[in-house]
Design brief:
The protein is α+β, with helices and mostly antiparallel strands. It has 15 helices and 14 strands.
Length: 527
């Protein structure tokens, strides 16, 4: 992730940024070397370059350009380490510019200022003690060139004060470049830390979100998945490709690639769990990845059911309130009329009909209000066998005339379920009361039987009455449907709504070996 300077352990710059800066310095070298070599062939060469050092100027400029050409190949392929490339570029810069400066008349030519750029580049690209090292080398080259001039006497004078100022400039710019690079490094580290923190937060959110998420490529090779996908698919670890999870899933993915508009798939696994799968594209710079979002259909239905119950509750509460007021007036008027002394038997029979049907409408309103006041599911974890024993004791105490009509058959099943206890009490109370009312048979007790069906825990309420007519079976869970003259038709509907609210199902069955029927409540949330 980071590339350190071999001479400085306390300085690092991001790798991508480092190679970008190195390429920028290379382009500066390329332009400068082309200008210097082009100057040789121009009419100004005789004015700028000393006539006795034309060959030195030419070969130094040509070498400078050649080294730049070799450097671009090595840098573009990133052959070798970044630190080695940076050091060679800066060091060769100092040598070539020193030779070119000497060929142009020494320090007085002003070309020594180009070495300021090289030492500054050393501070930015490498930093630390390397920056000071290059500043010291540049200063030594300048003083060595001046000493050589003085010794050989090739030029009229040696400008030592200017050389000293130039050397001080080397160290100053190298230090300032180092400080600037350190500040840039600090900002980069802070940004990287923030990005890392956001990535960790995103990973945590993805891992603990309730929806399953699988990332794959066109060949169906899985590259990423979260914990929710393993939980929904009931696997500790997902296989390497989609087809290994489910053949139907692999076929559905290929079909979606051919027809992108059909991006939903209903998937039924071997454990009878229904999942809804949504396909979407995740485009990147070089590849296309695909995301599969998995959602438990039961969980989705639960949220829809909660919203539906809330809306229905507000509507029914308003309607029931508006009906109850005139109904109370009708019932009260009927009572007063029944107390009149001048009524004959026919009139009294009519007032009795008014009272009877007023009470029935009131019962319907009570059931509607009960439905509208259903609270959200507050699920708890408990052992169903112990809870059923307590429920049956309470129900028997409230229906003392039928104590011998109920029996509990648990088959030694000790299963922990996750369910709202209040909702479960309401469901079983309704089913047991219906069994007493419509399925009462002398000397045949009504059974509450606890069974296990694959991964689900089921509670059967079995009676030996005549059962429900075949023509009515498809309507029994519809609101306000009843075959009884005294029923409201809301009991089984409320049972089904509460069951779905707790990710459970309720169904009606007929006994195979003898006359009788039963309602079965199957609970998926078990542990």
């Amino acid at each position: 992730m980071f590339t350190p300077c071999p001479f400085s352990k306390d300085y690092t710059i991001p790798k991508q940024q480092a190679w970008f800066l190195l390429k920028g310095f290379y382009f500066y070298r390329l332009i400068l070397s082309c200008l210097l070599l082009g100057l040789y062939f121009s009419s100004f060469s005789s004015v700028i370059v000393n006539s006795q050092f034309l060959s030195l100027y030419f070969y130094s400029s040509l070498s400078y350009l050649s080294l730049s050409g070799v450097a671009i190949f090595l840098i573009s392929k990133q052959l070798g380490s970044y630190a080695s490339h940076a050091q060679v570029l800066v060091f060769s810069d100092l040598i070539c510019i020193t030779l070119i400066m000497h060929a142009c008349g020494g320090i007085s030519s002003g070309l020594g200022a180009l070495m300021l750029v090289s030492t500054t580049a050393g501070g930015v690209l490498i930093g630390g003690r390397c920056a000071m090292l290059f500043a010291a080398i540049a200063s030594l080259f300048v003083f060595a060139e001046q000493a050589y001039n003085y010794r050989v006497g090739e030029f009229d004078s040696a400008d030592y004060p200017y050389s000293g100022m130039l050397g001080a400039g080397f160290f100053t710019l190298a230090f300032l470049a180092y400080i600037l690079a350190k500040r840039t490094e600090l900002i980069s580290r802070l940004q990287e830390a923030e990005i890392t923190s956001l990535e960790a937060l995103n990973q945590s959110i993805i891992q603990y979100m309730p929806l399953g998420m699988i990332i794959t490529n066109r060949q169906q090779v899985i590259s990423y998945y979260n914990e929710a996908s393993c939980r929904l698919l009931e696997q500790l670890k997902l296989p390497p490709n989609l087809a290994a999870i489910s053949f139907e899933l692999g076929v559905g993915f290929d079909a979606w690639l051919q027809a992108p508009n059909k991006n939903f798939l209903r998937l039924t696994l071997q454990n009878e769990l229904d999942l809804q799968v949504q396909f979407s594209v995740l485009p990147t710079e070089s590849h296309h990845y695909y995301m599969l979002t998995l959602e438990d259909v039961a969980g989705y239905n639960q949220r829809v059911q909660q919203a539906k119950l809330a809306s229905l509750g507000r509507l029914t509460a308003s309607i029931a309130h508006e009906i109850r007021n005139p109904l109370g007036a009708i019932s009260h008027a009927g009572q007063l009329l029944a107390e009149a002394n001048y009524l004959d038997e026919g009139d009294k029979r009519l007032t009795a009909i008014i009272q009877k049907h007023s009470l029935r409408i009131n019962e319907i309103i009570e059931d509607i209000l009960q439905l509208s006041q259903q609270r959200d599911s507050h699920q708890q974890r408990f052992i169903i066998q112990d809870w059923l024993s307590e429920f049956l004791m309470r129900f028997n105490s409230e229906n003392k005339g039928y104590q011998q009509q109920f029996s509990l058959e648990s088959n030694d099943i000790s299963q922990t379920i996750i369910f709202d206890k209040g909702h479960l009490t309401q469901i079983l109370t309704n089913l047991c009361e219906n069994a007493l009312k419509y399925g009462y048979v002398t000397h045949k007790p009504i059974k509450i039987k606890l069974t296990k069906q694959k991964h689900r825990c089921c509670i059967d309420v079995i009676d030996y009455g005549e059962g429900i007519a075949t023509d009515n079976l498809k309507y029994i869970f519809e609101p306000f449907f009843t075959s009884s003259h005294s029923g409201t038709g809301l009991g089984l509907y409320i049972c089904r709504e509460l069951a779905q609210l707790n990710q459970a199902t309720i169904s009606y069955h007929v006994l195979d070996d003898e006359q009788g029927c039963y309602f079965r409540l199957c609970i998926s949330n078990t542990s």
